[in-house]
Recover the amino acids of this structure.
């Protein structure tokens, strides 16, 4: 790891980072001198594991928001690299242009042919500008829908990865029908005749997330978030003060545990100690196992059964009263 770049670590991570740095220093020094420090390194590693469990067992909602946005957090392309043996990316919505904030294409998972679609953020300023920070334009959602229709024609299950602050709110996006594009995706995903597995890997923000989020099964990574608005936006509306984002995050019930308790998602995928950004491969293998288990369950259902259960699942969310007619 690049230990000197501590600006890439969150404040509550620093005690663990410093201990890991110490372990690395001891190991490097021993290698140079030809010393056996295996027992000392093992002791420090056990201490680091205990410290990591202690820190991450009592995270506040705002700290989980920070983890969901972590610059090192695995992106859709990272999951594709670690999970699928083949991936052929497809581009464009056949109407306006390609949107780099959404990636999608044909993939192979063991013996299954799938369609993969997901939000894609960048790692630095240049790539984030290219990817528009994971905020898709309407053409991005129309590209996603085109790929879903292709999957339906060829009988391929769809897997989506969600990680976006929300749909892009610019004037051009609105002029090209942002709301219509999202609404159409919701309707068409509800009626898709193939299995749909959704994994919220980082930020699940507003309609930008929902446009890829109507699935037979919806899972969240342990430190992902899912909400109708960002904590900063909520604080600005409620208190006219976006510095109260931490208070908003606590009130919004946006963590994976909250979403599971509310029946919004079907399960939580555990992250490695310290968060998904520390070990992309391990968290990807856990996501892979969940996708495989879920597809094995869903592939025995007919198209009508998938549609009926999917609709029933989403209609059961929330609490509401139905006013008698007449």
């Amino acid at each position: 790891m690049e230990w000197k770049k501590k600006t890439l670590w969150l404040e509550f991570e620093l005690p663990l980072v410093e201990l890991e740095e110490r372990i690395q220093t001891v190991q490097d020094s021993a290698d140079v001198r030809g010393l056996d420090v295996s027992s000392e390194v093992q002791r420090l590693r056990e201490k680091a594991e205990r410290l990591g469990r202690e820190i991450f067992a009592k995270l506040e909602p705002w700290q989980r928001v920070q983890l969901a946005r972590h610059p090192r957090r695995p992106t859709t392309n990272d999951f594709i690299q670690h999970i699928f043996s083949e991936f052929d990316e497809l581009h464009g919505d056949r109407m306006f242009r390609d949107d780099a904030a959404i990636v999608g294409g044909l993939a192979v998972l063991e013996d299954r042919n799938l369609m993969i679609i997901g939000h894609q953020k960048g790692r630095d300023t240049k790539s984030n500008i290219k990817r528009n920070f994971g905020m898709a334009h309407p053409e991005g959602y129309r590209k996603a829908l085109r790929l879903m229709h292709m999957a339906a024609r060829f009988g391929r299950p769809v897997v989506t990865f969600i990680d976006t602050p929300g749909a892009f709110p610019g004037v051009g996006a609105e002029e090209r029908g942002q709301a219509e594009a999202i609404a159409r995706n919701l309707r068409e995903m509800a009626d898709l005749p193939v299995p749909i597995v959704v994994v919220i890997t980082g930020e699940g923000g507003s309609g930008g997330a929902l446009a890829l989020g109507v699935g037979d099964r919806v899972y969240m990574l342990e430190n992902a978030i899912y909400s109708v608005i960002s904590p900063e936006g909520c604080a600005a509306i409620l208190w006219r003060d976006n510095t109260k984002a931490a208070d908003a995050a606590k009130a919004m019930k946006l963590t994976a545990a909250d979403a599971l308790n509310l029946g919004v998602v079907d399960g939580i995928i555990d992250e490695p100690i310290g968060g998904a950004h520390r070990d992309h491969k391990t968290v990807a293998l856990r996501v892979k196992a969940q996708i495989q288990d879920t597809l094995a369950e869903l592939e025995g259902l007919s198209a009508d059964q998938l549609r009926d259960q999917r609709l029933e699942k989403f209609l059961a969310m929330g609490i509401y009263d139905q006013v008698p007619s007449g």
Notes: The first strand starts at residue 86 and ends at 89. The CA atoms of residues 6 and 14 lie 8 Å apart. The mean pLDDT is 91. The domain at 65-315 is CATH 3.90.226.10 (2-enoyl-CoA Hydratase; Chain A, domain 1).
